[in-house]
Amino acid sequence: MAASLLIEDVDASYGAVRALDGVSLTVAAGETVALLGTNGNGKTTLMRCILGLLRPTRGRIVATIDGVSTDLTGMPAEAIVDLGIALVPEGRRLFPRLSVEENLLLGAYRRTARAAIPRNLEFCYDAFPRLKERRTQSVGSMSGGEQQMVALGRAVMCAPKILLVDEPSVGLAPILVARTVEKIAELKEKLGLTVLMAEQNFHQAIRIADRGYVLVHGRVEFRGDSPAALGDSDLVRKFYLGL
Ligand SMILES: Nc1ncnc2c1ncn2[C@@H]1O[C@H](COP(=O)(O)OP(=O)(O)OP(=O)(O)O)[C@@H](O)[C@H]1O
Fold this sequence. Notes:
Blueprint: E1 3-14, E2 17-27, E3 32-36, H1 43-50, E4 58-65, E5 68-71, H2 77-83, E6 85-88, H3 100-106, H4 111-114, H5 117-127, H6 129-133, H7 144-156, E7 162-166, H8 174-191, E8 194-199, H9 202-208, E9 211-216, E10 219-224, H10 227-232, H11 234-240
Helix pairs in contact: 3-7, 7-8, 8-9
Bound molecules: adenosine-5'-triphosphate (ATP).
Adenosine-5'-triphosphate (ATP) binds next to strand 2 and helix 1.
């Protein structure tokens, strides 16, 4: 079923540091939207606000899932996860001493997701055959690309409708970035997800994004309604492509 996000005029701060300044954006049902920007421009902060890990100081965030709109602003993160919103965090944040399967199961810790563990685990192993082969291996002994697959799999274990992916390219060789991005597109198709992906790797992001926004110093400085429009923007060409 359909899930969409509306972010309206959101401000967020860390003490005196204003990290988001009047950010408004939308992710329509079934879209993949890229949130572009170099380091420190507010991508992670926006992801944290959506998931309820940081409370915006102004504005609102609304998710509409299966026809029901919920104002997420100020809701606890667990309740937001229960609604069907999952985050694949920057740097993956896995438990290196635990096995692949143990890490995957941690994604299904909420009561609502627990009932669906067998089905979601099967789906994960279907989508990531390598994880099935390695399911008893400790995650810390796996390659960066494999770890990124575990992080994606863990998010899928809570049966999300909206997937937030924060900088999946961090720490990965270019070929692995390409594979990760393709996997995100594949998961999106198979599960009918709506995806918001923060990424500073412009070329990889626009391979799968329908459109995107560029954040600069916590503000949306450009909105491109297609990958071509993003690539043609002076802002993107100057700051991200060095042209
Ligand atoms: N915990 C924190 N305490 C204080 N300031 C923070 C904190 N986290 C982020 N910031 C600041 O907020 C701003 C936005 O950071 P944010 O992490 O959202 O950017 P980003 O675009 O995701 O970059 P990165 O890819 O480096 O995470 C930056 O100026 C950053 O220094």
